[in-house]
Design brief:
Elements lengths: L2 H4 E5 L2 H10 L11 E7 L2 E9 L4 H8 L7 E9 L7 H12 L4 E7 L8 H5 L3 E5 L3 E6 L7 H5 L8 H9 L3 E6 L3 E7 L2 H10 L29
Parallel strand pairs: 4-5
Antiparallel strand pairs: 1-2, 2-3, 3-4, 5-9, 6-9, 7-8
Length: 229
């Protein structure tokens, strides 16, 4: 059976994504979600993909400059059941690209520290731009599982957030260097829109990285709730 005869893709809610992101995705945490899509077999949800725009301003500008920074969104989670047919993830992304609003610039990362090369992005014709900039993340001693963004969000929309974190946690708060990741970019839109993006791009298109992918544990139970609509 062809994939488009068995599977269907539609937009879903944040609540439908939540158990997948917390229990099955390797990061085991929520993220900024502006758009979310589900992969279905009949009415059963078998995969999720999310996009968000909570992206550092300098990174948005680094893709196509100031004039197009508001079009930049991150593909920040992609998670499907292990039992799906080969090429399902490519089919999933291809269908999502038809549904997303346009024009749009999609950026996504393959985490080298988890043994990821980004083969799904290569299979769907993303452009490889090289490695992301190395950053420093805030951590708490004894609670290293808490993400740096989660810590910063404790004083969201307040001035001097770092100062307030230091005042609250003292010597428990420290910084670690975040490993660089492979960065991929996709331009979505009609021919004219994509041409404008290409003419304005601030990056060099590089050869795809290769290597063995490391699989991570996705065995934790998850409830794949069926859809009524």
């Amino acid at each position: 059976m062809k994939l488009n005869g068995k599977y269907n893709v539609r937009q879903i809610s944040v609540d439908e994504c939540k158990p997948w992101l917390l229990n099955r995705h390797y990061l085991k945490r929520m993220t900024s979600i502006s758009y979310a899509y589900g992969l279905f077999v009949g009415v059963e949800l078998v995969g999720v993909c999310t996009f968000g725009n909570a992206i550092p301003l300098n990174m948005k500008k680094s893709i196509c400059g100031d004039n197009f920074m508001d079009y930049v969104y991150e593909l920040n989670r992609l998670c499907t059941l292990d039992s799906l047919e080969r090429n399902c993830n490519s089919f999933f992304l291809g269908e999502i690209f038809k549904l997303l609003p346009k024009p749009l610039i999609i950026v996504s990362y393959a985490d080298k520290s988890f043994g990821h090369n980004g083969y799904i992005y290569q299979a769907t014709n993303f452009m490889f731009t090289g490695e992301s900039h190395v950053q420093l993340d805030w951590k708490l001693k004894g609670k290293e599982h808490i993400h740096s963004r989660t810590l910063m969000d404790e004083f969201a929309f307040e001035e001097d957030r770092v100062k307030k974190l230091k005042e609250k946690y003292g010597d428990q708060l420290y910084q670690v260097q975040r490993p660089a990741k492979h960065r991929y970019v996709m331009f979505l839109g009609n021919k004219t829109q994509r041409k404008k993006f290409i003419q304005s791009k601030k990056f060099e298109i590089k050869s795809y990285p290769k290597g063995d992918n490391k699989r991570y544990d996705t065995s934790l139970p998850i409830v794949t709730q069926t859809s009524l609509f």
